[in-house]
Amino acid sequence: MALDFAAGCVGGAAGVLVGHPFDTVKVRLQVQNVDKPLYRGTFHCFQSIIRQESALGLYKGIGSPMMGLTFINAIVFGVQGNAMRKLGRDTPLNQFLAGASAGAIQCVICCPMELAKTRMQLQGTGEKKSKRKMYKNSLDCLVRIYRKEGIRGINRGMVTTLLRETPGFGVYFLTYDMLTRSLGCEPEDPYMIPKLLFAGGMSGIASWISTYPVDVIKSRLQADGVGGVNQYNGIMDCVRQSLKKEGWRVFTRGLTSTLLRAFPVNATTFATVTLFLMYMREGEECSIQDSEPQSVQLQPLQPQTQPTSM
């Protein structure tokens, strides 16, 4: 289990650095005012942020996921690995159930983290140097929200986070398991790393597509109240207002940026995690062979614990 936690930490950090700029673009597109849109699409949003706020604008709010995703991935890997061991059999259904349970449990950290990230990403929109910053950093953001709104405030969007993460992680682990099995990702395979990258990237894409409409609502609820004005009374009110004003396409806002982010982030994370586990387990087996001179077969690369951060 310790290896699962360590692998999650390593994979999480790699994923954040690769994907955060795409996440900033996703959030800006999801919550922008449709009557006075600042951005025409994904690439225009990228260009506008760099031109108006410099390249650092793409990394606004990175402090929160850098701190949070390390713990989130550690929790996800630990819970998923334990769940698979408890379930016993390595079947597609068990992969889904173990992933879903891991996704649900990590929401305790994920929801406040994403709230701070979203607020920081929206702060100073269109300004290279914000004249007036509401929040100094992600931690200050959470502290201020807590002082003003209490525990309920820092858990804004918790229900939608659960609705996104629980099935999303289930699809995630299930897809990765099926792809690595069908591609034959074994330690002796010379093309193992490209196969792992492909399986991880496609797992991320499948996971995001399966729950993306929920993510749009989550982002809108967590951004609601910025500037002191609350627009939505709850999840269903947000869904109704969004559909009435923007139609069904509202649930695809920012999807291009999300999918562009999903492949490299999850390819990097899954490959890093799988290789880390493989080499650590190989080292453990070598130690066993040294102490007890008997043949120990290398565990297959398709382990019982194969999660990532989305």
TrEMBL record:
<keyword id="KW-0496">Mitochondrion</keyword>
<dbReference type="InterPro" id="IPR050567">
    <property type="entry name" value="Mitochondrial_Carrier"/>
</dbReference>
<dbReference type="GO" id="GO:0005289">
    <property type="term" value="F:high-affinity L-arginine transmembrane transporter activity"/>
</dbReference>
<keyword id="KW-0677">Repeat</keyword>
<keyword id="KW-0999">Mitochondrion inner membrane</keyword>
<dbReference type="InterPro" id="IPR023395">
    <property type="entry name" value="MCP_dom_sf"/>
</dbReference>
<dbReference type="InterPro" id="IPR002067">
    <property type="entry name" value="MCP"/>
</dbReference>
<feature type="compositionally biased region" description="Low complexity">
    <location>
        <begin position="293"/>
        <end position="310"/>
    </location>
</feature>
<dbReference type="Pfam" id="PF00153">
    <property type="entry name" value="Mito_carr"/>
</dbReference>
<feature type="repeat" description="Solcar">
    <location>
        <begin position="90"/>
        <end position="182"/>
    </location>
</feature>
<feature type="repeat" description="Solcar">
    <location>
        <begin position="194"/>
        <end position="279"/>
    </location>
</feature>
<keyword id="KW-0812">Transmembrane</keyword>
<comment type="similarity">
    <text>Belongs to the mitochondrial carrier (TC 2.A.29) family.</text>
</comment>
<feature type="repeat" description="Solcar">
    <location>
        <begin position="1"/>
        <end position="86"/>
    </location>
</feature>
<dbReference type="GO" id="GO:1990575">
    <property type="term" value="P:mitochondrial L-ornithine transmembrane transport"/>
</dbReference>
<keyword id="KW-0029">Amino-acid transport</keyword>
<feature type="region of interest" description="Disordered">
    <location>
        <begin position="290"/>
        <end position="310"/>
    </location>
</feature>
<dbReference type="InterPro" id="IPR018108">
    <property type="entry name" value="MCP_transmembrane"/>
</dbReference>
<keyword id="KW-0813">Transport</keyword>
<keyword id="KW-1133">Transmembrane helix</keyword>
<keyword id="KW-0472">Membrane</keyword>
<protein>
    <recommendedName>
        <fullName>Mitochondrial basic amino acids transporter</fullName>
    </recommendedName>
</protein>
<dbReference type="GO" id="GO:0005743">
    <property type="term" value="C:mitochondrial inner membrane"/>
</dbReference>
